[in-house]
């Protein structure tokens, strides 16, 4: 049954299509300069109306993901970009996205992820993909440990900031809803893997730090670090209702990340940066536990 005929006004369908298309562009499924499927094909694939597809494409265009032209379709403008800090990282991951790095991490017996981010939206998409690989029997990690630092909902953040004060609560509520949805999804997906005896040991911990995230950070298996500042931009934010609000916002998905690898040389640029960021994360984590 079409989700938009079940009484939720298309809100869940809008989120589902929007998040899936972002994920596909971020992981390179739809490469830069390629064209998205037609609106008709997307509507058929996701079981939604053309109106929902059009609202999603408008949001993606506002965020700079795509360029849409009448009669030409929607072309991808950007993916998740990775820049490497060492020769080893360059050889291993030239031009790749976050997705292959997460995939490689989950191919190990033990997976550790230390993440500092604004909403966990990006991570949720990648973890759900790895859960499907686990269920399909393609990978079999024995342990998954996730530590995540997020800002508390009580912390006034400088973004997203509505250009009109009357819209401030709408944007704040939208941000908090995104965070709740994706942290809940992360907890649920990983808990299900343990309950289904697919991963014997799962440990998910989330702590809230009174810091405004100026960057996102992933420390993967204590050996690789992805780091990138949030890009602040003025853009229309599309609400689930279809209403557009002009705002100053940050774009996490699609932001340039730098890739640093801890190698055998403790004085190499990658090792120094990876070690320092792991130490930063550990220090904040410990402080919040006291």
Question: Could you characterize the architecture of this molecule?
Answer:
- With 290 residues, this protein is an alpha/beta fold.
- The protein is 40% helix and 24% strand.
- It contains 8 helices and 12 strands.
- Strands 3-12-9-8-4-5-7 form a 7-stranded mixed sheet, with helices on both faces. Strands 6-11-10 form a 3-stranded antiparallel sheet.
- α6 (121-135) runs parallel beside α7.
- The radius of gyration is 19 Å and the shape is globular.
- The relative contact order is 0.15.
- Residues 1-9 and 86-96 have low confidence and may be disordered.
- Keywords: DNA-binding, Transcription, Transcription regulation.
- Residues 11-79 form the HTH gntR-type domain.
- This is Winged helix-turn-helix domain-containing protein.
Proportion of residues in helical segments: 40-55%
* Proportion of beta-strand residues: 15-25%
Going across the major beta sheet, what is the strand order? 3-12-9-8-4-5-7
The biggest sheet, with number of strands, parallel, antiparallel or mixed sense and barrel status, is:
7 strands, mixed
- Global shape: globular
Oligomer kind? single chain
- The average pLDDT is 85
Number of distinct helices:
8
Judged by helices, strands and strand pairing, the structural class is alpha/beta
Protein name: Winged helix-turn-helix domain-containing protein
Keywords: DNA-binding, Transcription, Transcription regulation
Domain HTH gntR-type: 11-79
InterPro entries: Bact_HTH_transcr_reg, Tscrpt_reg_HTH_GntR, WH-like_DNA-bd_sf, WH_DNA-bd_sf
């Amino acid at each position: 049954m079409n989700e938009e005929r079940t009484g939720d006004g298309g809100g869940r369908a809008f989120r589902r299509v929007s998040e899936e298309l972002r994920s596909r562009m971020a992981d390179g499924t739809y490469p830069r300069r390629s064209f998205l499927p037609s609106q008709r094909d997307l509507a058929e694939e996701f079981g939604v109306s053309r109106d929902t597809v059009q609202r999603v494409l408008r949001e993606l265009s506002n965020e700079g993901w795509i360029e849409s032209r009448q009669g030409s379709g929607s072309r991808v403008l950007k993916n998740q970009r990775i820049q490497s800090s060492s020769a080893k990282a360059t050889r291993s991951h030239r031009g790749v996205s976050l997705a292959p790095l997460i995939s490689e991490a989950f191919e190990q017996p033990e997976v550790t992820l230390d993440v500092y981010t604004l909403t966990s939206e990006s991570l949720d998409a990648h973890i759900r993909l790895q859960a499907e690989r686990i269920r399909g029997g393609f990978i079999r990690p024995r342990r998954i440990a996730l530590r995540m630092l997020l800002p508390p909902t009580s912390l006034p953040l400088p973004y997203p900031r509505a250009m009109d004060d009357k819209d401030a609560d709408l944007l704040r509520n939208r941000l908090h809803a995104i965070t709740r949805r994706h942290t809940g999804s992360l907890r649920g997906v990983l808990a299900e893997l343990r309950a289904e005896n697919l991963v014997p040991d799962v440990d998910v911990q989330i702590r809230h730090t009174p810091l405004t995230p100026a960057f996102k950070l992933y420390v993967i298996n204590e050996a690789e670090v992805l780091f990138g500042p949030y890009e602040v931009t003025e853009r229309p934010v599309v609400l689930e209702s279809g209403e557009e609000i002009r705002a100053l916002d940050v774009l996490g998905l699609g932001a340039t990340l730098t890739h640093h690898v801890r190698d055998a040389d403790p004085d190499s640029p990658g090792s120094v940066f990876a070690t320092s960021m792991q130490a930063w994360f550990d220090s904040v984590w410990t402080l919040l536990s006291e």
